[in-house]
Amino acid sequence: MQWFQQIAPPPGVARALTLRSIVYAAGSGIFQAGSAVFFTKYLGLTATQVGIGLSVAGALTVGCSIPLGVLTDRFGARRTWIVAGLAEAVLFFAYPLIGSFTAFLGLVCLLALTDMTGSTAKHVYTLQALPPAERVRALAYQRSALNVGFTAGAALSGIALAIGTRPAYLGLVLTNGAVLLLTAALISRLPKVPTAGSAPRTNPFAALADRPFLALSGVNGVLQAHVTLFGVVLPLWILTQTDAPELLVPVLYMVNTVLAVTLQVRASRGSETPLGAARALRTGGVTVALSALLLGAAAFTSGVITIAVLVAGTVMLTIGELTQSAGAWGITATLPPEDRRGEYTGAFKLGGQLQQSLGPAGLTMLAIGTGGWGWLVIAVLMLVGGYYAPAAVRWVLRTPRLGATIAADPAPELARVR
Question: Which residues lie below 8 Å from residue 314, measured CB to CB, with a gap of 6+?
Fold first, then answer.
Protein backbone atom coordinates (compact mmCIF):
# COMPACT_ATOMS: atom_id res chain seq x y z
CA MET A 1 0.00 0.00 0.00
CA GLN A 2 3.02 2.29 -0.40
CA TRP A 3 1.36 3.96 -3.40
CA PHE A 4 -1.54 4.93 -1.13
CA GLN A 5 0.82 6.81 1.16
CA GLN A 6 1.86 8.92 -1.84
CA ILE A 7 -1.66 10.26 -2.32
CA ALA A 8 -3.22 10.01 1.16
CA PRO A 9 -2.35 12.51 3.91
CA PRO A 10 -2.94 11.68 7.57
CA PRO A 11 -6.59 11.37 8.68
CA GLY A 12 -8.49 14.61 8.93
CA VAL A 13 -9.70 17.35 6.62
CA ALA A 14 -6.77 16.95 4.23
CA ARG A 15 -7.55 13.26 3.73
CA ALA A 16 -11.26 13.98 3.22
CA LEU A 17 -10.35 16.53 0.55
CA THR A 18 -8.06 14.01 -1.11
CA LEU A 19 -10.77 11.34 -1.15
CA ARG A 20 -13.16 13.80 -2.79
CA SER A 21 -10.50 14.55 -5.41
CA ILE A 22 -10.19 10.89 -6.38
CA VAL A 23 -13.96 10.46 -6.69
CA TYR A 24 -14.39 13.69 -8.64
CA ALA A 25 -11.50 12.93 -11.00
CA ALA A 26 -12.77 9.42 -11.72
CA GLY A 27 -16.08 10.81 -12.96
CA SER A 28 -14.40 13.60 -14.88
CA GLY A 29 -11.96 11.15 -16.47
CA ILE A 30 -14.81 8.93 -17.61
CA PHE A 31 -16.45 11.84 -19.40
CA GLN A 32 -13.39 13.64 -20.75
CA ALA A 33 -11.85 10.56 -22.31
CA GLY A 34 -15.02 9.95 -24.31
CA SER A 35 -16.34 13.51 -24.66
CA ALA A 36 -15.31 13.94 -28.29
CA VAL A 37 -17.20 10.77 -29.23
CA PHE A 38 -20.25 11.84 -27.23
CA PHE A 39 -20.33 15.29 -28.82
CA THR A 40 -20.03 14.03 -32.38
CA LYS A 41 -21.79 10.66 -32.36
CA TYR A 42 -24.50 11.25 -29.75
CA LEU A 43 -25.23 14.96 -30.09
CA GLY A 44 -24.42 15.00 -33.81
CA LEU A 45 -22.14 18.05 -33.64
CA THR A 46 -19.27 18.62 -36.02
CA ALA A 47 -15.69 18.85 -34.78
CA THR A 48 -15.67 22.54 -35.72
CA GLN A 49 -18.80 23.23 -33.66
CA VAL A 50 -17.31 21.43 -30.67
CA GLY A 51 -14.09 23.41 -30.96
CA ILE A 52 -15.92 26.73 -31.24
CA GLY A 53 -18.17 25.95 -28.30
CA LEU A 54 -15.32 24.95 -26.01
CA SER A 55 -13.22 27.94 -27.08
CA VAL A 56 -16.05 30.39 -26.36
CA ALA A 57 -16.64 28.75 -22.97
CA GLY A 58 -12.94 29.02 -22.15
CA ALA A 59 -12.82 32.68 -23.14
CA LEU A 60 -15.86 33.38 -20.93
CA THR A 61 -14.05 32.13 -17.83
CA VAL A 62 -11.24 34.63 -18.36
CA GLY A 63 -13.61 37.56 -17.89
CA CYS A 64 -15.49 35.93 -15.02
CA SER A 65 -12.58 34.57 -13.00
CA ILE A 66 -12.34 37.47 -10.55
CA PRO A 67 -16.11 38.02 -10.07
CA LEU A 68 -16.54 34.32 -9.34
CA GLY A 69 -13.77 34.61 -6.76
CA VAL A 70 -15.62 37.54 -5.20
CA LEU A 71 -18.72 35.35 -5.09
CA THR A 72 -16.76 32.75 -3.13
CA ASP A 73 -15.68 35.38 -0.61
CA ARG A 74 -19.22 36.72 -0.31
CA PHE A 75 -21.06 33.45 0.34
CA GLY A 76 -18.29 31.31 1.80
CA ALA A 77 -16.10 28.73 0.11
CA ARG A 78 -17.88 25.60 1.37
CA ARG A 79 -21.38 26.80 0.50
CA THR A 80 -20.29 28.08 -2.91
CA TRP A 81 -18.49 24.81 -3.62
CA ILE A 82 -21.58 22.72 -2.81
CA VAL A 83 -23.90 24.88 -4.95
CA ALA A 84 -21.46 24.85 -7.87
CA GLY A 85 -21.15 21.06 -7.66
CA LEU A 86 -24.91 20.55 -7.63
CA ALA A 87 -25.38 22.97 -10.53
CA GLU A 88 -22.69 21.18 -12.54
CA ALA A 89 -24.40 17.83 -11.93
CA VAL A 90 -27.75 19.19 -13.14
CA LEU A 91 -26.11 20.59 -16.27
CA PHE A 92 -24.55 17.22 -17.09
CA PHE A 93 -27.93 15.54 -16.74
CA ALA A 94 -29.22 18.14 -19.23
CA TYR A 95 -26.72 17.08 -21.92
CA PRO A 96 -29.10 14.51 -23.51
CA LEU A 97 -31.65 17.30 -24.07
CA ILE A 98 -29.29 19.24 -26.34
CA GLY A 99 -30.78 19.53 -29.81
CA SER A 100 -28.82 22.32 -31.48
CA PHE A 101 -25.44 24.01 -31.54
CA THR A 102 -26.90 27.05 -29.79
CA ALA A 103 -28.09 24.91 -26.90
CA PHE A 104 -24.70 23.18 -26.77
CA LEU A 105 -22.93 26.53 -26.66
CA GLY A 106 -25.11 27.74 -23.81
CA LEU A 107 -24.62 24.53 -21.83
CA VAL A 108 -20.84 24.38 -22.14
CA CYS A 109 -20.60 28.05 -21.16
CA LEU A 110 -22.64 27.38 -18.01
CA LEU A 111 -20.53 24.31 -17.28
CA ALA A 112 -17.34 26.33 -17.65
CA LEU A 113 -18.63 28.88 -15.14
CA THR A 114 -19.73 26.26 -12.60
CA ASP A 115 -16.45 24.40 -12.97
CA MET A 116 -14.46 27.61 -12.46
CA THR A 117 -16.57 28.51 -9.43
CA GLY A 118 -16.12 25.06 -7.89
CA SER A 119 -12.38 25.05 -8.56
CA THR A 120 -11.90 28.45 -6.93
CA ALA A 121 -14.09 27.56 -3.95
CA LYS A 122 -12.25 24.26 -3.44
CA HIS A 123 -8.92 26.03 -3.43
CA VAL A 124 -10.09 28.71 -1.00
CA TYR A 125 -11.71 26.15 1.31
CA THR A 126 -8.49 24.14 1.47
CA LEU A 127 -6.53 27.25 2.47
CA GLN A 128 -9.13 28.27 5.07
CA ALA A 129 -9.58 24.81 6.59
CA LEU A 130 -5.90 24.06 7.21
CA PRO A 131 -3.08 25.81 9.08
CA PRO A 132 -0.54 27.64 6.88
CA ALA A 133 2.15 24.99 7.22
CA GLU A 134 -0.15 22.27 5.81
CA ARG A 135 -1.87 24.11 2.95
CA VAL A 136 0.54 23.56 0.07
CA ARG A 137 1.12 19.94 1.04
CA ALA A 138 -2.65 19.32 1.13
CA LEU A 139 -3.01 20.78 -2.37
CA ALA A 140 -0.19 18.52 -3.53
CA TYR A 141 -1.96 15.47 -2.14
CA GLN A 142 -5.10 16.52 -3.98
CA ARG A 143 -3.18 16.87 -7.26
CA SER A 144 -1.72 13.37 -6.86
CA ALA A 145 -5.20 12.02 -6.15
CA LEU A 146 -6.60 13.77 -9.22
CA ASN A 147 -4.05 11.99 -11.40
CA VAL A 148 -5.06 8.63 -9.96
CA GLY A 149 -8.75 9.38 -10.45
CA PHE A 150 -8.37 10.71 -14.00
CA THR A 151 -6.39 7.63 -15.01
CA ALA A 152 -8.95 5.26 -13.52
CA GLY A 153 -11.82 7.18 -15.11
CA ALA A 154 -10.18 7.21 -18.53
CA ALA A 155 -9.69 3.46 -18.31
CA LEU A 156 -13.35 2.94 -17.40
CA SER A 157 -14.49 5.11 -20.30
CA GLY A 158 -12.84 2.59 -22.61
CA ILE A 159 -15.64 0.15 -21.77
CA ALA A 160 -18.30 2.52 -23.13
CA LEU A 161 -16.20 3.36 -26.17
CA ALA A 162 -15.63 -0.32 -26.88
CA ILE A 163 -19.39 -1.01 -26.73
CA GLY A 164 -19.89 1.87 -29.17
CA THR A 165 -23.66 2.39 -28.83
CA ARG A 166 -25.70 5.50 -28.10
CA PRO A 167 -26.75 4.25 -24.64
CA ALA A 168 -23.09 3.58 -23.86
CA TYR A 169 -22.10 7.11 -24.90
CA LEU A 170 -24.96 8.51 -22.81
CA GLY A 171 -23.64 6.52 -19.88
CA LEU A 172 -20.44 8.59 -19.94
CA VAL A 173 -22.41 11.76 -19.22
CA LEU A 174 -24.87 10.32 -16.71
CA THR A 175 -22.09 8.61 -14.76
CA ASN A 176 -20.22 11.87 -14.39
CA GLY A 177 -23.43 13.62 -13.32
CA ALA A 178 -23.97 11.00 -10.63
CA VAL A 179 -20.36 11.33 -9.46
CA LEU A 180 -20.80 15.11 -9.21
CA LEU A 181 -23.81 14.57 -6.94
CA LEU A 182 -21.73 12.22 -4.81
CA THR A 183 -18.90 14.71 -4.53
CA ALA A 184 -21.33 17.46 -3.53
CA ALA A 185 -22.52 15.15 -0.74
CA LEU A 186 -18.90 14.59 0.33
CA ILE A 187 -18.30 18.35 0.40
CA SER A 188 -21.38 18.83 2.60
CA ARG A 189 -19.79 16.48 5.15
CA LEU A 190 -16.65 18.61 5.41
CA PRO A 191 -16.47 20.79 8.53
CA LYS A 192 -17.54 24.40 8.35
CA VAL A 193 -14.65 26.81 8.69
CA PRO A 194 -14.59 30.38 9.97
CA THR A 195 -13.97 32.89 7.23
CA ALA A 196 -12.63 36.40 7.40
CA GLY A 197 -15.26 39.08 6.99
CA SER A 198 -15.47 40.08 3.37
CA ALA A 199 -14.41 43.66 2.75
CA PRO A 200 -16.99 46.02 1.19
CA ARG A 201 -16.76 45.95 -2.61
CA THR A 202 -18.22 48.17 -5.24
CA ASN A 203 -16.14 46.78 -8.10
CA PRO A 204 -15.83 43.01 -8.66
CA PHE A 205 -12.71 43.66 -10.76
CA ALA A 206 -10.89 45.66 -8.07
CA ALA A 207 -7.99 43.19 -7.94
CA LEU A 208 -7.12 44.21 -11.50
CA ALA A 209 -5.70 47.40 -9.98
CA ASP A 210 -3.07 45.35 -8.12
CA ARG A 211 -0.38 45.54 -10.80
CA PRO A 212 2.35 43.61 -8.92
CA PHE A 213 0.03 40.68 -8.30
CA LEU A 214 -1.18 40.69 -11.91
CA ALA A 215 2.42 40.74 -13.10
CA LEU A 216 3.11 37.68 -10.96
CA SER A 217 0.00 36.06 -12.43
CA GLY A 218 1.38 36.74 -15.91
CA VAL A 219 4.76 35.23 -15.07
CA ASN A 220 3.04 32.17 -13.68
CA GLY A 221 0.93 31.95 -16.83
CA VAL A 222 4.07 31.82 -18.97
CA LEU A 223 5.55 29.07 -16.81
CA GLN A 224 2.24 27.19 -16.97
CA ALA A 225 2.85 26.62 -20.68
CA HIS A 226 3.93 23.11 -19.71
CA VAL A 227 0.22 22.21 -19.77
CA THR A 228 -0.06 23.03 -23.48
CA LEU A 229 3.36 21.67 -24.34
CA PHE A 230 2.49 18.27 -22.92
CA GLY A 231 -1.17 18.01 -23.85
CA VAL A 232 -1.13 19.59 -27.32
CA VAL A 233 2.33 20.23 -28.75
CA LEU A 234 4.20 17.08 -27.72
CA PRO A 235 1.82 14.55 -29.35
CA LEU A 236 1.77 16.56 -32.60
CA TRP A 237 5.54 16.94 -32.52
CA ILE A 238 6.08 13.22 -32.07
CA LEU A 239 3.67 12.26 -34.84
CA THR A 240 4.79 14.81 -37.43
CA GLN A 241 8.44 15.68 -36.78
CA THR A 242 10.11 12.59 -35.30
CA ASP A 243 10.49 8.94 -36.25
CA ALA A 244 9.14 7.73 -32.90
CA PRO A 245 6.26 5.22 -33.06
CA GLU A 246 2.71 6.42 -32.31
CA LEU A 247 2.59 4.05 -29.35
CA LEU A 248 5.10 6.28 -27.58
CA VAL A 249 2.45 8.97 -27.03
CA PRO A 250 0.33 6.99 -24.52
CA VAL A 251 3.53 5.65 -22.94
CA LEU A 252 4.68 9.22 -22.25
CA TYR A 253 1.28 10.00 -20.75
CA MET A 254 1.82 7.06 -18.40
CA VAL A 255 5.30 8.34 -17.50
CA ASN A 256 3.84 11.75 -16.70
CA THR A 257 1.04 10.30 -14.57
CA VAL A 258 3.29 7.98 -12.57
CA LEU A 259 5.77 10.77 -11.82
CA ALA A 260 2.97 13.18 -10.90
CA VAL A 261 1.42 10.69 -8.47
CA THR A 262 4.68 9.68 -6.81
CA LEU A 263 6.58 12.98 -6.75
CA GLN A 264 4.01 15.81 -6.45
CA VAL A 265 3.95 15.85 -2.64
CA ARG A 266 7.75 15.70 -2.47
CA ALA A 267 8.07 18.47 -5.06
CA SER A 268 5.84 20.74 -2.98
CA ARG A 269 8.19 20.76 0.02
CA GLY A 270 9.57 24.18 0.77
CA SER A 271 6.89 26.07 -1.17
CA GLU A 272 4.94 27.13 1.91
CA THR A 273 6.50 30.62 1.97
CA PRO A 274 6.85 33.36 -0.66
CA LEU A 275 10.57 32.58 -0.78
CA GLY A 276 9.97 28.91 -1.36
CA ALA A 277 7.23 29.57 -3.89
CA ALA A 278 9.51 31.90 -5.89
CA ARG A 279 12.24 29.26 -5.96
CA ALA A 280 9.78 26.62 -7.10
CA LEU A 281 8.57 28.83 -9.96
CA ARG A 282 12.16 29.49 -10.98
CA THR A 283 12.94 25.77 -10.93
CA GLY A 284 9.85 25.14 -13.03
CA GLY A 285 11.04 27.60 -15.67
CA VAL A 286 14.52 26.08 -15.86
CA THR A 287 13.31 22.48 -16.11
CA VAL A 288 10.67 23.25 -18.76
CA ALA A 289 13.36 25.09 -20.74
CA LEU A 290 15.62 22.03 -20.58
CA SER A 291 12.69 19.90 -21.64
CA ALA A 292 12.10 22.13 -24.68
CA LEU A 293 15.71 21.66 -25.77
CA LEU A 294 15.48 17.89 -25.39
CA LEU A 295 12.17 17.60 -27.20
CA GLY A 296 13.40 19.80 -30.03
CA ALA A 297 16.52 17.65 -30.39
CA ALA A 298 14.33 14.61 -31.12
CA ALA A 299 13.89 15.88 -34.69
CA PHE A 300 17.58 15.23 -35.33
CA THR A 301 17.87 11.73 -33.88
CA SER A 302 16.57 8.34 -34.92
CA GLY A 303 15.46 5.01 -33.52
CA VAL A 304 16.13 4.24 -29.88
CA ILE A 305 17.94 7.56 -29.39
CA THR A 306 14.78 9.45 -30.36
CA ILE A 307 12.72 7.49 -27.86
CA ALA A 308 15.28 8.08 -25.11
CA VAL A 309 15.42 11.82 -25.81
CA LEU A 310 11.63 12.12 -25.80
CA VAL A 311 11.35 10.20 -22.53
CA ALA A 312 14.02 12.41 -20.95
CA GLY A 313 12.24 15.51 -22.23
CA THR A 314 8.94 14.28 -20.78
CA VAL A 315 10.55 13.63 -17.40
CA MET A 316 11.97 17.17 -17.32
CA LEU A 317 8.63 18.60 -18.47
CA THR A 318 6.86 16.74 -15.67
CA ILE A 319 9.33 18.02 -13.08
CA GLY A 320 8.62 21.51 -14.38
CA GLU A 321 4.89 20.85 -14.00
CA LEU A 322 5.28 19.66 -10.41
CA THR A 323 7.50 22.53 -9.27
CA GLN A 324 5.54 25.25 -11.05
CA SER A 325 2.31 23.94 -9.51
CA ALA A 326 3.87 23.92 -6.05
CA GLY A 327 5.09 27.49 -6.52
CA ALA A 328 1.65 28.66 -7.65
CA TRP A 329 0.02 27.04 -4.61
CA GLY A 330 2.55 28.74 -2.35
CA ILE A 331 1.66 32.10 -3.87
CA THR A 332 -2.09 31.72 -3.36
CA ALA A 333 -1.56 30.29 0.13
CA THR A 334 0.57 33.16 1.42
CA LEU A 335 0.03 36.42 -0.48
CA PRO A 336 -3.74 37.12 -0.85
CA PRO A 337 -5.55 38.97 1.98
CA GLU A 338 -7.68 36.62 4.06
CA ASP A 339 -10.91 38.49 3.33
CA ARG A 340 -10.26 38.57 -0.43
CA ARG A 341 -8.75 35.15 -0.95
CA GLY A 342 -11.33 34.12 -3.55
CA GLU A 343 -10.94 37.38 -5.45
CA TYR A 344 -7.16 37.09 -5.55
CA THR A 345 -7.30 33.40 -6.43
CA GLY A 346 -9.44 34.38 -9.40
CA ALA A 347 -6.95 37.10 -10.33
CA PHE A 348 -4.04 34.68 -10.11
CA LYS A 349 -5.79 32.25 -12.44
CA LEU A 350 -5.88 34.88 -15.21
CA GLY A 351 -2.33 34.21 -16.38
CA GLY A 352 -2.96 30.50 -16.76
CA GLN A 353 -6.28 31.07 -18.50
CA LEU A 354 -4.72 33.40 -21.04
CA GLN A 355 -2.00 30.83 -21.66
CA GLN A 356 -4.64 28.18 -22.28
CA SER A 357 -6.36 30.50 -24.76
CA LEU A 358 -3.27 31.62 -26.68
CA GLY A 359 -0.85 28.79 -26.01
CA PRO A 360 -2.21 25.98 -28.23
CA ALA A 361 -1.94 28.00 -31.44
CA GLY A 362 1.15 30.00 -30.48
CA LEU A 363 3.26 27.17 -29.09
CA THR A 364 2.27 24.77 -31.86
CA MET A 365 3.33 27.35 -34.45
CA LEU A 366 6.63 27.91 -32.65
CA ALA A 367 7.49 24.25 -32.22
CA ILE A 368 6.12 22.71 -35.41
CA GLY A 369 5.41 25.60 -37.77
CA THR A 370 9.06 26.65 -37.67
CA GLY A 371 10.35 23.17 -38.38
CA GLY A 372 11.77 22.86 -34.89
CA TRP A 373 13.95 25.89 -34.18
CA GLY A 374 11.02 27.47 -32.32
CA TRP A 375 11.79 25.12 -29.42
CA LEU A 376 14.75 27.43 -28.72
CA VAL A 377 12.33 30.37 -28.43
CA ILE A 378 10.14 28.35 -26.06
CA ALA A 379 13.19 27.52 -23.93
CA VAL A 380 14.14 31.19 -23.74
CA LEU A 381 10.58 32.16 -22.74
CA MET A 382 10.66 29.63 -19.92
CA LEU A 383 14.08 30.79 -18.71
CA VAL A 384 12.93 34.42 -18.73
CA GLY A 385 9.76 33.51 -16.83
CA GLY A 386 11.74 31.55 -14.25
CA TYR A 387 14.30 34.34 -13.91
CA TYR A 388 11.69 37.03 -13.29
CA ALA A 389 9.50 34.99 -10.92
CA PRO A 390 11.51 35.94 -7.79
CA ALA A 391 11.53 39.60 -8.89
CA ALA A 392 7.76 39.50 -9.31
CA VAL A 393 7.36 38.00 -5.84
CA ARG A 394 9.60 40.72 -4.37
CA TRP A 395 7.42 43.38 -6.03
CA VAL A 396 4.28 41.83 -4.54
CA LEU A 397 5.84 41.66 -1.09
CA ARG A 398 6.76 45.35 -1.23
CA THR A 399 3.21 46.41 -2.15
CA PRO A 400 0.11 46.35 0.10
CA ARG A 401 -2.75 44.20 -1.13
CA LEU A 402 -6.36 45.37 -1.15
CA GLY A 403 -7.60 45.30 2.41
CA ALA A 404 -4.20 44.28 3.78
CA THR A 405 -0.92 45.82 4.82
CA ILE A 406 2.64 44.63 4.45
CA ALA A 407 4.42 43.46 7.57
CA ALA A 408 6.34 46.14 9.42
CA ASP A 409 9.71 44.94 8.15
CA PRO A 410 9.60 42.68 5.09
CA ALA A 411 13.27 43.35 4.28
CA PRO A 412 14.64 39.98 5.50
CA GLU A 413 12.20 38.04 3.35
CA LEU A 414 12.74 40.35 0.36
CA ALA A 415 16.46 39.93 0.53
CA ARG A 416 16.20 36.16 0.41
CA VAL A 417 13.85 35.97 -2.61
CA ARG A 418 16.54 35.77 -5.28
Answer: 230, 234, 252, 255, 256, 291
Asked if residue 370 is part of any domain, the answer here is yes
Listed in sequence order, the residues at least 6 apart from 102 whose beta carbon sits closer than 8 Å to its beta carbon are: none
Alpha carbon distance 144, 113 (integer Å): 24
Q: CA distances (Å), 322 to each of 14, 216, 260, 269, in order? A: 19, 18, 7, 11
Cα 76 to chain centroid distance, Å, stands at 22
What digits encode the pLDDT tens for the residues 17-67? Answer: 999 999 999 999 899 888 888 998 899 988 888 888 888 888 888 888 889
In a domain, 373, yes or no: yes
Contacts for 35-43 with beta carbons within 8 Å, 24 or more apart?
A: 35/172, 37/161, 37/169, 38/95, 38/169, 38/170, 38/172, 38/173, 39/104, 41/166, 41/169, 42/96, 42/166, 42/169, 42/170, 43/95, 43/98, 43/104
Please report, for residues 101, 112, 218, 312, 348, the alpha-carbon distance to residue 353 in angstroms, rounded to integers and kept in the order given.
Answer: 24, 12, 10, 28, 9
pLDDT band at 247 (very low <50, low <70, confident <90, very high): confident
Which range of residues forms the domain containing residue 34? 10-188
Look at residues 126, 161, 188 and tell me which one is the last residue of a structural domain. Answer: 188
Long-range contacts of 240-245 (CB under 8 A, 24+ apart): 240/368, 241/298, 241/299, 241/368, 241/371, 241/372, 242/298, 242/299, 242/301, 242/306, 242/310, 243/302, 243/303, 243/306, 244/298, 244/306, 244/307, 244/310
Express each pLDDT in 350-373 by its tens digit: 999 888 888 888 898 999 888 889
pTM passes above 0.85: yes
